[in-house]
Amino acid sequence: MGITLEEAQRVMAEADLLYSAADIAHALDILAASITEALADKNPLVLCVMNGGVITAGHLLTRLNFPLEQDYLHATRYRGATSGGQTITWLHEPETSLAGRHVLLVDDLLDEGYTLREVARWCRERGAQTVSIAVLADKIHARRVDGIQADFPALPLVDRYVFGFGMDYKEYWRNANGIYAVKGM
Ligand SMILES: O=P(O)(O)OC[C@H]1O[C@H](OP(=O)(O)OP(=O)(O)O)[C@H](O)[C@@H]1O
Ligand SMILES: Nc1nc2[nH]cnc2c(=O)[nH]1
Predict the structure, then answer these.
(1) Is 71 left (phi over 0), alpha (psi -120 to 50) or beta?
(2) Which of 46, 94, 121, 151 is the most buried (most CB within 10 A)?
(3) Residues with Cβ within 8 Å of residue 71, at least 6 apart in sequence
(4) Within 13 Å of residue 168, how many CA atoms lie on the same side as its CB?
(5) Concatenated DSSP letters of 87-155
(6) ipTM greater than 0.85
(7) Does residue 168 have its Cβ closer than 6 Å to ligand 2?
(8) Cα–chain-centroid distance for residue 22?
(9) Distance of alpha carbon 75 from alpha carbon 158, whole angstroms
(10) How far apart are the CA of 78 and the centre of ligand 1, in A?
(11) Which atom of ligand 1 is found nearest the CA of 50?
């Protein structure tokens, strides 16, 4: 599964920049304003979906100037690969009780939707009063599973395999400060 540093360097050198850091910052400002309007008086529980959600959650949280609680979970479908099965593997559940809470899930990407559909179902099963979903990138294609959409999407994404700002290429380049598409994918 691992790749060489040379492959990681090549993938970045050949990638197409879809959204710059400035584009993302602007989109997150707008996203934060929408979330504030909807949730500022709801004492929400913000759950970061690890690993991919970590950078978006960090940048988004500093833009939310109202009382909230924050926790994290790790549910993964792709596990470092560039295509995933339909099984979601839970690696960490949040410590905080979800009962009666307005839960806001924050993730990097809504693609086919299996991951966030399962996580949202799991939150409702544990008694969340409402579950809403914020994602940095909302991929546009016809493969989205039924019953899932982003309440707060920051940026639309073409149907390509992307990395950066939390999203990995075979576990590399989550640290890239932008959203990049892999050449040929
Ligand atoms: O909408 P889907 O098609 O289900 O794909 C989107 C999910 O895939 C990625 O997670 P991944 O499974 O790669 O785990 P990771 O965040 O730990 O990299 C991403 O962070 C989303 O959670
Ligand atoms: N890094 C990354 N993870 C994904 N999970 C589902 N789609 C994608 C994608 O395009 N990039």
Answers:
(1) beta
(2) 46
(3) 45, 46, 47, 48, 94, 95, 96
(4) 19
(5) PPEEEE--SS--TT-EEEEEEEEESSSHHHHHHHHHHHHTT-SEEEEEEEEEE-SS-PPTT---SEEEE
(6) yes
(7) yes
(8) 18
(9) 24
(10) 6
(11) 16
The overall pTM is greater than 0.80: yes
pLDDT tens digits for 122-134?
A: 999 999 999 999 9
Indicate if ligand 2 lies below 6 Å from the C-beta of 162. Answer: yes
Alpha carbon distance 49, 12 (integer Å): 25
Check which CATH number belongs to the domain holding 34 and give it.
3.40.50.2020
Ligand approaching nearest to the C-alpha of 80: 1
How buried is residue 36: exposed, middle or buried, by Cβ count under 10 Å (0-12/13-18/19+)? middle
Nearest CA among 68, 175, 86 for reference residue 132:
68
Residue listed under structure tokens 């991919």: 52
Number of domains forming the structure of the chain: 1
CA distance 160 to 163: 10
Three-class SS state of 31: helix
Q: What is the pLDDT of residues 78-103, one digit of tens each?
A: 766 666 677 888 999 999 999 999 99
Q: Which residues of 42-60 are buried (b: 16+ CB within 10 A; e: fewer)?
A: bebbbbbbbbbbbbbbebb
Contact 105, 118 (CB under 8 A): no
